[in-house]
Amino acid sequence: TLPTVTGIVDRLVGRELVHRIENAGDRRIRLAGLTPEGLALVEQIAAAGQKRRRRLLMRIDVDALRGLER
């Protein structure tokens, strides 16, 4: 719901992970953009996910992986 989203964005703003962007054409619209700190966190999470996927794929037999290519 809208109040829930607002609360989440408020907390992210408070942690300096996102900033609000005003819409000059419509004051009802506000966008949220990542701060440099927020972008760094997203990159860190993505790298951790990639590392985890790599570890999981290493456990799969090579022939099974080749079967997935087809």
Summarize the structure.
This protein starts with a helix and ends with a helix. It has a two-stranded antiparallel ribbon. It is built from three helices and two strands; from the N terminus they run αββαα.
Task: Describe the protein's architecture and organization.
- The chain is of the alpha+beta class.
- The protein has 3 helices and 2 strands; from the N terminus they run αββαα.
- It starts with a helix and ends with a helix.
- The model has no long low-confidence stretch (mean pLDDT 92).
Give the SSE map.
Blueprint: H1 2-14, E1 18-22, E2 30-34, H2 36-58, H3 62-69
Antiparallel strand pairs: 1-2
**Which structural class fits the helix and strand makeup?**
alpha+beta
- Mean pLDDT comes to 92
Strand count, sense and barrel status of the largest sheet are: 2 strands, antiparallel
Please bin the fraction of helical residues.
55-70%
- Please list the strands of the largest sheet in the order they lie side by side: 1-2
Q: State the shape.
A: elongated
In whole angstroms, how far apart are the ends?
Answer: 43 Å
Radius of gyration: 20 Å
Count of separate DSSP helical elements: 3
Q: What portion of residues belong to β-strands?
A: 5-15%
The tally of strands reads 2
SSE string, helices as H and strands as E:
HEEHH
Poorly predicted runs: none
